[in-house]
Here is the input.
Amino acid sequence: MTLTTDRPAAPPATGRPTEEPLLRIRGLGVSYGTGARVLDGIDLDARAGEILGVIGETGSGKTTLARAVVGLAPVTTGRITVDGTDRTALRGRALREARRAGAVQYMFQDPLRSLDPDLAVRHLIGEPLAVAGIPADVRAERVLTALDLTGLDRALLDRTPGRLSGGQRQRVALARAIVTRPRLLLADEPVSALDASNRNHVLRLLDRLRHELGLAVVVISHDLDSLAGVADRIAVLYRGRLVEQGPAEAVLTRPLHPYSALLAASAPGLDRTRRAGLALLRTPSPAAPADAACVFAHRCPFADADCRELPQPQPRGADRTAACHHAPAWREHLSR
Ligand code: SF4
Here is the structure.
């Protein structure tokens, strides 16, 4: 298979110049004790009122990315700026105060595990406010507002998590996350444990809340299908590197990285035109060099000697980057 190399000379660019992103990540690297890099060279933005979907399989680093933003994963290189504040530079008291203020909130993957089983809903939702030192009367009022915003019945206020349905528990986790009036919400696999009906309900809720509260929402998911209806933009991670990002519709229907194409073609209900290319996308190239630097080379149908060099995210049109030496030329092979 012969492919042309098409490498733009311009430096990587993310974000629309007219809108300052609420979340700005530049050159993010995360390593754990063994020195193994879990994330490397990540540049990513999210704007107020926007839902950014972050997709990747197990080991892609997507949860680590979210945890790094809230300070739960060790940042070894790069910067994470939220609303103009460099979170990676915060230390000691400044860090504790920023956490208490709750401008950045994280919704854990499994509400049954993350919510204290002995606390009633009113205390679960009010807890972040108590930690922030908000007086009890104001707290009670804001708990009710959060309850209403997430469509939870006030009759549930005195129930513990074990007496709630899965959908109700996830909405309690959401109410708890928004009660501090955050600017940025990171939702880690928010619908993976829910049935179809509750899944749609929670996704619609996130969609409404980002508008009503002007929130930037980052939804972490392994499931492209669930991001399709709700994300404005999608970022695709593979083995700790950002391989593609751009407007959701463009990434889903005209992917520029072979891994994004594989995800889109494999997702039930998503691929409308390229199912025929699935077999090709699942066939690794025999020409892939053993010493390829591209993280996807061992699975890539289009890998060749050029892929010895690590591909960096390059701008590919407005608000879009892809890290592949042969984008978009490889796409021609799908239509053959
Ligand atoms: S750079 Fe990576 S994704 Fe692109 S053709 Fe080479 S191996 Fe495949």
About this structure: Residues 257-258, 294, 296-297, 300, 302-303, 307, 311, 324-326, 330 surround iron/sulfur cluster (CB under 6 Å).
